[in-house]
């Protein structure tokens, strides 16, 4: 329908809905004379109502008023299908359906991070039995040094180490209440291991150690302690996709990405932090803390001492917390020394209360299956609350006892950490060299089990869709599972995380060969 | 500086239930080193059959050393973090669960979600079934830990279902309706019933009538039922245990909507006396719930080492059968020892056929029929007579004067000593009071 707004409005614009009139007025021009005003208002109103009707019919079915937890959960799923539709579970009626949170979580994972992991599970590469399977480069797992632990086990498989019968499994006839936050001897062993793994520059205190069943619950527990539902943490992006789940799902804390860029080598800048903080304040969002991962995941760079001091200053000025996820602290391969936030906290007595560290044995000690995580805090109240919360995420006594034996063998641990670092280093060198031969570069990194690869020249168009197209090609044509930057909330498209510690040396050429095919086919024609 | 959740008192640990433990920790009884210390009668743990487990372990060193036919599986276990759980373990667990229920119910391993202990399972279920501010109806008296586990982080409310000693605290339809109406008055949307069967602290199993009432109520109000069955392996006497799943089957409700609104929680902590392993589970016929709870279990996964070891123990069906039978025998005789001891001094115990404890009637010792008098009596029992028993008020018992005493977490000698101390307590009270 076309309109020719010719005549001046006959009536003055003094009807109740002034804004409405501004829209309607041009249309009044059609209908002159008597009834012009009425028709001039009626037609657009009618059109407006029909539009609403049309939209309503084509919108998703009505939902229960979405709670904050719903939107939080949805965000974590990076909805590619952008459907917030039908939060009611299938086949349920009325009030008996599961919670909105459960409905949302129950849906299949839409994020490429999880889709890729599922694909590997369905069709895993094996040199002998499944040479055409999908090679896993999307899980930051370290398989390089498990043999060292296996060797230790076989050497020490005597009663004295594994304990006589029941003691090994934590069975005893004494009616003592097993502390949910970890056996004292285990906390001592963990504190010592952390000290060793982080280069002995800090001495960790066992009384500040709270043990959890993995780093995942450690982060969730801290989120519950430090922020209320609807508050936010600032987190440098790109970041580990799991944070969306760990922090948003149940604790309901929002994550505000602080974007880092390739021109800065993806290093965090205080200016960017400040901007993000101020913008949050303008939006009315209460920031309760900064969540850093150091060494960073997925980029693999480390924060230096100056930056850590700056972060503490930043936190102090705004009265917020710092959570430092240092789970890769012992897996460094560069020339820089790792600096723990604990070292800064130790020297800045006044602000210790803001500093909380997350650690675990899944990466540095290669035993994710045993579920060992640590909350290390300088804040007594946080420790007290965390200890109570570990009952929801507690560690098996038998596992603790076994690990006490292992971790107390200081010589073994030192050897392990040293050898492990060397092996990560050589894999990194080989892997990066292999990529370079294909004309592919990575960010300079010094820690973690992965590298941050620049495939931006190979994507077309230069946006998230182009990146996901390439991811899809890599997964389904080259059959390698890597994590696209968008799953990590990277603001620049075309970056991918490749984990190389799930491979052995022989497999690197296989990976490169498969990559080559895709790289060649994607190279921009000059 | 901390969140509201961290600073509020919803952790429930100010309850007398937990305070009693704290007093015990300060002055624990030891037959040699501290004979006059406080005896722990407040910890519902099964320590009667460790010797059986220890001898199994001595004969089966392989799984301890991560060995099985074909070599070491350390590597596989070390890297195993699939939240769907070790298939071999879930299979054994499903068969064990069925065996405990006399095979009247079959369990599909795919409908099991593993969690780090039943504490984690209970909380996860709340997150999955209710929004913050919604409520579950819970029969009183109930385990004090629920105030923390079901409410703290989830924001879910508990509305108690009243009971009375007149009918041995059984669940009756009018009480269910009253609780529901009470919730309505408080503007709380009721999402379900949360029952513990066998009951803690009563130690009784629900009768088929009670189960019927509960099921009919849940159908009528269109709500869920969560059945915490962690004590199902401790049923040492008749009547036999009837699981909620069996009750549903008997009523032919298998393909109706209520079928996917009933969820079971269990663990190996009580049956097997293995709380340290942190092995809990959720069982449900609701696909959506299983999908959500499985992912949520990331916050409390069971160590692969525990899963492997337990798959071996449970896989040894002969041993498991023997263990269950022997364990029941020992529990029954322990209970008898406690009850007959108390009866001699005029203290009555509720008739119970399960659990690791007795629900005892100490009303005769109250200075007045009030909860203040109950607390007064409790303090006397702890500080003067050195016994940590748990007062009924901490279990939200509607009537004062009831206490829970555990009997399976100490030696016979210690239990005997405890009974003698109770005698001293009764003797010091008004003559012929009990």
From TrEMBL, chain A:
InterPro entries, per this entry? Aminotransferase_I/II_large, Ethylene_sulfur-biosynth, NHTrfase_class1_PyrdxlP-BS, PyrdxlP-dep_Trfase, PyrdxlP-dep_Trfase_major, PyrdxlP-dep_Trfase_small
Domain Aminotransferase class I/classII large intervals: 135-514
Q: Which PROSITE patterns match?
A: AA_TRANSFER_CLASS_1
Q: Which UniProt keywords apply?
A: Aminotransferase, Pyridoxal phosphate, Transferase
Sample GO molecular function, one term:
aromatic-amino-acid transaminase activity
Which Gene3D superfamilies did the record assign?
Aspartate Aminotransferase, domain 1, Type I PLP-dependent aspartate aminotransferase-like (Major domain)
Its family remark reads: Belongs to the class-I pyridoxal-phosphate-dependent aminotransferase family.
Please state what the protein is called.
Aminotransferase ACS12
Biological source species: Sesamum alatum
TrEMBL record, chain B:
Determine the domain of life of the protein's source: Eukaryota
GO MF, one example: pyridoxal phosphate binding
According to the entry, every stretch annotated as the Aminotransferase class I/classII large domain falls at: 39-422
- Which InterPro entries does this UniProt record tie to the protein? Aminotransferase_I/II_large (IPR004839), Ethylene_sulfur-biosynth (IPR050478), NHTrfase_class1_PyrdxlP-BS (IPR004838), PyrdxlP-dep_Trfase (IPR015424), PyrdxlP-dep_Trfase_major (IPR015421), PyrdxlP-dep_Trfase_small (IPR015422)
Is this entry keyworded Mitochondrion? Answer: no
> Does this UniProt record's set of keywords contain Acetylation?
no
What are the record keywords, sorted? Pyridoxal phosphate
**Membership in a protein family:** Belongs to the class-I pyridoxal-phosphate-dependent aminotransferase family.
- The name on file for this protein is 1-aminocyclopropane-1-carboxylate synthase 3
Which organism was this protein described from?
Sesamum alatum
């Amino acid at each position: 329908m076309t309109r020719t707004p010719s005549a001046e409005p006959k009536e003055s614009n003094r009807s109740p809905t002034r804004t409405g009139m501004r829209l309607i007025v041009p249309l009044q021009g059609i209908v002159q004379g008597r009834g012009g005003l009425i028709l001039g208002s009626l037609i657009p109103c009618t059109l407006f109502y029909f539009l609403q009707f049309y939209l309503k019919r084509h919108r998703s079915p009505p939902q229960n008023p979405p709670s904050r937890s719903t939107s939080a959960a949805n965000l974590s799923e990076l909805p590619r299908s952008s459907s917030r539709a039908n939060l009611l579970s299938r086949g349920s009626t009325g009030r008996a359906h599961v919670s909105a949170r459960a409905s949302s979580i129950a849906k299949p994972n839409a994020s490429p991070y999880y889709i890729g992991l599922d694909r590997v599970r369905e069709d895993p590469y094996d040199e002998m039995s499944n040479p055409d399977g999908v090679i896993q480069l999307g899980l930051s797992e370290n398989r390089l040094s498990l043999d060292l632990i296996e060797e230790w086990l076989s050497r020490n498989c005597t009663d004295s180490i594994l304990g006589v019968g029941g003691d090994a499994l934590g069975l005893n006839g004494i009616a003592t209440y097993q502390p949910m936050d970890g056996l004292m001897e285990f906390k001592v062993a963990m504190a010592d291991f952390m000290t060793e793994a982080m280069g002995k520059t800090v001495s960790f205190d066992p009384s500040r150690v709270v043990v959890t069943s993995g780093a995942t619950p450690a982060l969730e527990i801290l989120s519950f302690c430090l922020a209320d539902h609807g508050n936010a943490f600032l987190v440098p992006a790109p970041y580990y996709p799991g944070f969306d789940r760990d922090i948003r799902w149940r604790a309901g804390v929002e994550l505000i990405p602080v974007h880092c860029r390739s021109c800065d080598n993806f290093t965090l800048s205080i200016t960017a932090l400040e901007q993000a903080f101020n913008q949050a304040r303008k939006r009315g969002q209460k920031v309760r803390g900064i969540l850093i991962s150091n060494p960073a995941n997925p980029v693999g760079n480390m924060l230096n001492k100056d930056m850590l001091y700056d972060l503490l200053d930043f936190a102090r000025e705004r009265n917020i917390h710092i959570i430092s996820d240092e789970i890769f602290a012992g897996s460094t391969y560069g020339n820089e020394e790792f600096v723990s936030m604990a070292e800064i906290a130790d020297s800045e007595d006044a602000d210790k209360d803001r500093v909380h560290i997350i650690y675990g044995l899944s990466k540095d000690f290669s035993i994710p299956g045993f579920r060992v995580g640590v909350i290390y805090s300088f804040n007594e109240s946080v420790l007290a609350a965390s200890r109570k919360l570990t009952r929801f995420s507690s560690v098996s006594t038998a596992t603790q006892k076994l690990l006490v034996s292992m971790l107390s063998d200081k010589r073994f641990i030192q050897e392990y950490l040293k050898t492990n670092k060397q092996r990560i280093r050589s894999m990194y060198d080989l892997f990066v060299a292999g990529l370079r031969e294909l004309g592919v570069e990575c960010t300079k990194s010094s820690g973690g089990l992965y590298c941050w690869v620049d495939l931006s020249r190979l994507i077309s168009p230069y946006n998230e869709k182009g990146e996901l197209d390439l991811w899809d090609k890599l997964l389904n044509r080259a059959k390698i599972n890597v994590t696209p930057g968008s799953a990590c909330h990277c603001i620049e498209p075309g970056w991918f995380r490749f984990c190389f510690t799930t491979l052995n040396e022989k497999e690197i050429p296989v990976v490169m060969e498969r990559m080559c095919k895709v790289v060649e086919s994607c190279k921009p024609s000059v | 500086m901390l969140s509201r959740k961290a600073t509020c008192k919803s952790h429930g640990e100010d309850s007398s239930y937990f305070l009693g433990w704290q007093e015990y920790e300060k002055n624990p009884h030891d037959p040699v080193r501290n004979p006059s210390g406080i005896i722990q009668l407040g910890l519902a743990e099964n320590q009667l059959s460790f010797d059986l487990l220890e001898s199994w372990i001595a004969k089966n060193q392989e799984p301890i050393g991560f060995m099985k036919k074909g070599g070491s599986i350390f590597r596989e276990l070390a890297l195993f973090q699939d939240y769907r759980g070790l298939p071999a373990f879930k299979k054994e667990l499903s068969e064990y669960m069925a065996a405990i229920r006399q095979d009247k119910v079959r369990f599909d391993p795919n409908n099991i979600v593993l969690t780090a202990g039943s504490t984690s399972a209970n909380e996860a279920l709340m997150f999955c079934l209710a929004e913050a501010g919604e409520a579950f109806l819970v029969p009183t008296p109930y385990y004090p830990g629920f105030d923390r586990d079901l409410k703290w982080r989830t924001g879910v409310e508990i509305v108690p279902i009243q009971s009375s000693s007149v009918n041995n605290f059984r669940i009756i339809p009018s009480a269910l309706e009253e609780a529901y109406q009470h919730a309505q008055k408080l503007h709380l949307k009721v999402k379900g019933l949360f029952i513990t069967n066998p009951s803690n602290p009563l130690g009784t199993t629900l009768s088929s009538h009670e189960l019927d009432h509960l099921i009919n109520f849940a159908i009528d109000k269109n709500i869920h039922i969560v059945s915490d069955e962690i004590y199902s392996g401790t049923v040492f006497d008749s009547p036999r245990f009837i699981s909620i799943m069996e009750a549903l089957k008997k009523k032919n409700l298998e393909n109706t909507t209520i079928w996917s609104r009933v969820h079971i929680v269990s663990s190996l902590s009580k049956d097997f006396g293995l709380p340290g392993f942190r092995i809990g589970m959720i069982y449900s016929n609701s696909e959506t719930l299983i999908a959500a709870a499985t992912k949520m279990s990331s916050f409390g996964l069971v160590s692969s080492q525990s899963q492997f070891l337990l798959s071996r123990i449970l896989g040894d069906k002969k041993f498991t059968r023997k263990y269950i039978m022997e364990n029941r025998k020992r529990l029954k005789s322990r209970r008898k020892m406690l009850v007959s001891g108390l009866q001699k001094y005029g203290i009555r115990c509720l008739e119970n056929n399960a659990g690791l404890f007795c629900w005892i009637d100490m009303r005769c010792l109250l200075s007045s029929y009030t909860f203040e008098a109950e607390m007064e009596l409790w303090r006397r029992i702890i500080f003067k007579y050195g016994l940590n028993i748990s007062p009924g008020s901490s279990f939200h018992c509607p009537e004062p004067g009831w206490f829970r005493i555990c009997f399976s977490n100490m030696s016979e000698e210690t239990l005997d000593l405890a009974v003698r101390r109770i005698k001293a307590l009764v003797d010091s009270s008004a003559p012929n009071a009990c």
